[in-house]
Structures are given as structure tokens and as C-alpha cells.
Amino acid sequence: xxxxxxxxxxxxxxxxxxxxxxxxxxxxxxxxxxxxxxxxxxxxxxxxxxxxxxxxxxxxxxxxxxxxxxxxxxxxxxxxxxxxxxxxxxxxxxxxxxxxxxxxxxxxxxxxxxxxxxxxxxxxxxxxxxxxxxxxxxxxxxxxxxxxxxxxxxxxxxxxxxxxxxxxxxxxxxxxxxxxxxxxxxxxxxxxxxxxxxxxxxxxxxxxxxxxxxxxxxxxxxxxxxxxxxxxxxxxxxxxxxxxxxxxxxxxxxxxxxxxxxxxxxxxxxxxxxxxxxxxxxxxxxxxxxxxxxxxxxxxxxxxxxxxxxxxxxxxxxxxxxxxxxxxxxxxxxxxxxxxxxxxxxxxxx
Length: 350
Prior knowledge:
Elements: H1 2-61, E1 69-75, H2 80-93, E2 97-101, H3 111-119, E3 125-128, H4 134-142, E4 146-161, E5 170-171, H5 172-179, E6 197-200, H6 208-217, E7 228-229, H7 233-242, E8 246-251, H8 252-255, E9 262-263, E10 266-267, H9 296-301, E11 307-316, H10 320-332, H11 335-343, E12 347-348
Parallel strand pairs: 1-2, 1-3, 5-10, 6-7, 6-8
Antiparallel strand pairs: 3-11, 4-8, 4-9, 4-11, 4-12
């Protein structure tokens, strides 16, 4: 019996030992598999990153005939966020294609001053938030060339008011009456008994925002006599933030994400007010940690009533200026260029 017990104990001990060895083996194998999976994941992520980078490079690389040299360009201040995102990427891909933003000798930059500088051979191409005027086409022909506008993005005009102003929005007809001086108190559009303070950039500057308002909203009627003219969008928005009755208009990306003002919904009819910001509205108390974003769907569909296109203005003269302008526009119209335009806060046109 003693021998049988010893044999039984021996066999049990061997089984336990084999179990422990097997467990260690399985544990080591599992660790090995995990490391293999991790390494595989790292390699896959690395490959994915390389594929994305390659795809982006190929996106710009699909544009041919990129010229070499230093090219001056200028124009609309609305374009500033696009310039910030796009130009560094272009310079990285094409270091020989050097771009220099050029301010006007006097006055402020605008679509109008950019076109004026282009016509006087100070720029190779210009950026505009409005179409070319008939008189600008005529001046170009007098100088022996033509002008071509190439749309590359969608923008809109947003109406900025003080955050404490409580109204649901405005119709285009009401906005017209406000800026022509027919409506002078917010009470006339469902708000408090508060005088309206109008802010605008000067018409003589020739900016795209002013031209859009005058032509498409005011129907070529003059701005009210009590409009306070301010030279920059930044300063105008500061004034609206301080003035409970203030109102201003500017490119939607310059208004929608601001913390000191709020953008009003607009509509062609009172029952069709469309916000320029994506819903749900982010309360300004949460800004700047959270900011409102553009209502891209309404901009692309045209449901938001004050939308427009942004243009690269190209000088058609068969020379390097034309090549530079067309190359710049072509780069912006690639998938990579359109992604950068979206990153800058505007709406892609493709």
C-alpha cells in the first residue's frame, strides 16, 4: 500500500509540474502574440500614416507646370485663414514656387485693392471675395490682357450682433431696411427698445463684403447716413461686443466662432430663418474651449441666403504671371487643397 501511495503522489506531483510548465509556456506564447500584434499594429499605423502622406503629396503632385520664381499676390482679407493653411503646404511641396503676400502702398487690403494692384502689374494674381466688375474687365483690355476668375471655395456673409440682443433672426428685407436707415430700433424687428448702431467697412475700399451687401441686399441703395465706418473686421467686432445695439457683417468664418459676438440666423422669409452656425448652438459661455462651427450643409445647398464664392483672379497674358495664378488655383482645387480650405474654416467647392 505504501508503494502504491508513493506512486500516486509521484504521479500527482508530475501532473502538477507539467501543468505549471504548460501554463508558463502558454503565458509566454500569449505575450509573444501580443507583442507581434502590437508590432503589427505599429507597422500598420506607420504604413497608414505613410499612405496618407503619400496621398496628400500625390494630390498636390498631380498639378503640373508649377513655375519657379518669386510671385507677388494680394487682395481680400477674407482669404487670410486660407493663406495661413495653404501657403506653407504649397511651399513645402514646391519650394521653387515662392509666394509673397503684398499689401497696397496706401490703404487697407481688400478684393478691390488687390484687383487694382493686379491691373497695375504690382501682382501676379490676386485673391477676391467678389466677382470682377465690368470696369475692371475694361481696364484689363485697355492694358492688353484679360482677367479670369476661378472659384475655389464657398463663403457666406454672417450678421454679428451683441450677445445680449434677444431676437430670433432677421429676414433679408429687414436687413436691407436696417442698413438703409428705414429700421432704426431693434423693437421694430421683435427685439428690445434699443437704438441700432450700424457698423460697416467703407464702400470706397471696394471690399467683397461691402459690395455683396450693397448689390445683393440693399439692391444698390446707399448705406444709411448714420453708419459708422470701421477699417478692419477685428475692430468692428470689438465694437459690437461692447455695444448692446451694434450690428456688423463679415465673412462667416470670421464671425461664427467668435466669443464676443453672436451670429444671427437669416432667411428670405420669417418662417425660414437659417443659422450660419451648425446646430446645436454652442453657448458663448463655453467659448473658447468650444466654438461654433459653420453650417456647411446650408452653405453648400444655398439654403443660407447670403452665400458667395471666393476667387483666384488670374491675369491672362500668356506669361509667368498667368502660369503662377493658374497653378495656385489648380492646387487649391485638388483634394488636398480643398481639405486645407475646409481646415481654414471655409466650405469646399468640390
